[in-house]
């Protein structure tokens, strides 16, 4: 029997090391063990900072191994309104800054982000549990994506003007850089002051560092922390806000949608959807096999993850022959654990879920689904993971695959946001489409079938904004459009020219492509 490996934290990657690097990189934003809020162009020691010095007293801990980390300095509603009013003042000045100057300042910010790429990625590892490879990719996608807009903005902004007020951004924790920081910089490039609420569950230090680098270059950015319930009146309903951009779940998104619809406010609301992968009259199993493992990147904690496979019953044995080896090969564990100090960081598919509560919720849903008739086809074991000795594993969930979850289970109709796949067997094309559309709209979908004509006939009936033929679809970068069907999206679609159109005003009358209360318009 081979000796058991003893893993250790790679030197220089501890949270304390990351924090000291933050203090050196942006001392104006990180002080005395706490993170500051940024508004009115100044860093403020306001808000109710969660303690982060003692494991016994701090509710702010990393999901990676329970290490205490800096907690968000939560503002009250009154201060949030002050921050929004100050952002409007910044907006009124910034919207008149010439485009070449805005472009220069955003470019300088991107150079600064590049200089701190490794630290930003390390913060993503600690705060939201991303493996090193995926954390680096999140930072790189933000930088490369905004650079594309810097190069293209002259064409896209021609004949358009900034909004009457700043853009307010409320986003989930899973992509602080490539979604939220990217959006902030593009919105500012288009002539708007920008406001962001720190995601409640993670990304505080990473976003604070990114915003500090932007503020140094004169970008009118506001970054505040607080509960959604307390800050929503300021960040969503305040008359100063020119547009609300939201990324998150359907329940919260529906409340935001109601508020912006009542006010007639410009909005971009990206919500979750049950993205499905269909298998119909398909035989190219060698092509499918390497794609299955990739669907587990970041533990399926992505808006474009594929947690549902809808499989033709007559092909189920062939599907399992490629699916099960792929899911058994998925690697999970502590993203910073190495065997030898000189080793490279591990190339893992995913680390922890965002917190222990989410891991328990998912385990309970799996247990309940099995109790009500779902068939467990695969259940991973934490014992096979890549972990430090005696580390806290409360936020970790191994891969699970269930056949035919009952209709009463949340796993039947909603996105699990964790490494749980559900398989549904079908016998007819009508059943295939019904199962793929069970979530009332999705952001992406994929249909694997051999015959191009069959794909061309069935794909338009799948209620997803993007549908791939045998390959997964993603949110996209640069000029690739993004949106959703059904309940997965409300408001303006984004990506490429559409993102600039969503946060600027054009000649009257203008109808933006998107899902609005009074119309639905697909891009031409």
TrEMBL record:
User: Where in the numbering of this chain does the Aldehyde dehydrogenase domain appear?
Assistant: 56-497
Which Pfam family, an example, fits this chain? Aldedh
Identify a single GO molecular function assigned to this protein. Answer: oxidoreductase activity, acting on the aldehyde or oxo group of donors, NAD or NADP as acceptor
- InterPro entries on file: Ald_DH/histidinol_DH, Ald_DH_C, Ald_DH_N, Aldehyde_DH_dom
Region annotated Disordered, chain positions: 47-72
Which residues lie in Low complexity bias regions?
49-63
> What UniProt keywords apply to this chain's record, in alphabetical order?
Oxidoreductase
Q: Which PANTHER family match?
A: ALDEHYDE DEHYDROGENASE-RELATED (PTHR11699)
Identification of the protein by name: Aldehyde Dehydrogenase
Q: Which species expresses this protein natively?
A: Streptomyces violaceusniger (strain Tu 4113)
């Amino acid at each position: 029997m081979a000796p058991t490996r003893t893993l250790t934290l790679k030197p220089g990657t501890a949270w304390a090391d990351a924090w000291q690097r933050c203090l050196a990189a942006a001392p104006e934003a990180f002080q005395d063990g706490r993170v500051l809020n940024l508004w009115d162009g100044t860093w403020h020691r306001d808000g109710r900072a969660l303690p982060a010095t003692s494991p016994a007293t701090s509710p702010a801990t990393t999901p990676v191994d329970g290490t205490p980390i800096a907690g968000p300095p939560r503002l009250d509603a009154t201060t949030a309104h002050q921050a929004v009013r100050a952002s409007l003042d910044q907006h009124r000045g910034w919207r008149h800054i010439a485009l070449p100057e805005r472009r220069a300042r955003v470019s300088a910010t991107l150079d600064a982000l590049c200089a701190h790429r490794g630290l930003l990625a390390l913060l993503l590892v600690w705060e939201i549990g991303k493996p090193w490879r995926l954390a680096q990719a999140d930072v790189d996608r933000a930088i490369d994506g905004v650079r594309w807009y810097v190069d293209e903005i002259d064409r896209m902004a021609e004949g358009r003007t900034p909004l009457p007020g700043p853009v307010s951004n409320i986003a989930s924790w899973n992509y602080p850089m490539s979604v939220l920081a990217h959006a902030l910089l593009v919105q500012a490039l288009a002539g708007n002051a920008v406001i962001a609420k720190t995601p409640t569950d993670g990304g505080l230090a990473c976003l604070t560092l990114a915003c500090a680098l932007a503020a140094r270059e004169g970008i009118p950015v506001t970054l505040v922390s607080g509960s959604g319930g307390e800050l929503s009146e300021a960040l969503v309903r305040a008359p100063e806000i020119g547009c609300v951009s939201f990324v998150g779940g359907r329940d919260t998104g529906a409340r935001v949608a109601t508020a912006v619809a009542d006010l007639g406010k410009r909005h971009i609301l990206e919500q979750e959807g049950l993205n499905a992968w269909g298998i119909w009259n398909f035989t190219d199993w060698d092509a499918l096999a390497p794609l299955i493992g990739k669907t587990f990147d970041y533990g399926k904690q992505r808006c474009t993850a594929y947690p549902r496979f809808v499989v033709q019953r007559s092909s189920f044995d062939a599907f399992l022959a490629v699916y099960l080896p792929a899911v058994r090969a998925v690697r999970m564990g502590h993203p910073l654990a190495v065997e030898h100090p000189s080793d490279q960081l591990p190339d893992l598919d995913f680390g922890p879920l965002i917190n222990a509560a989410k891991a328990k919720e998912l385990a309970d849903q799996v247990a309940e689904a099995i109790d009500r008739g779902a068939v467990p086809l695969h259940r991973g074991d934490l014992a096979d993971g890549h972990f430090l000795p005696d580390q806290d594993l409360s936020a970790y969930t191994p891969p699970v695959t269930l056949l035919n979850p009952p209709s009463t289970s949340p796993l039947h109709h909603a996105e699990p946001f964790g490494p749980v796949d559900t398989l549904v067997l079908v016998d007819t094309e009508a059943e295939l489409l019904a199962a793929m559309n069970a979530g009332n709209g999705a952001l992406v979908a994929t249909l694997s079938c051999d015959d191009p004509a069959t794909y061309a006939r069935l794909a338009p009936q799948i209620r997803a904004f993007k549908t791939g033929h045998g390959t997964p679809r993603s949110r996209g970068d640069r000029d690739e459009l993004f949106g959703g069907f059904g309940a997965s999206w409300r408001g303006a679609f984004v990506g490429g020219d559409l993102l600039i159109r969503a946060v600027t005003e054009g000649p009257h009358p203008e109808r933006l492509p998107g899902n609005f209360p009074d119309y639905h318009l697909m891009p031409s």
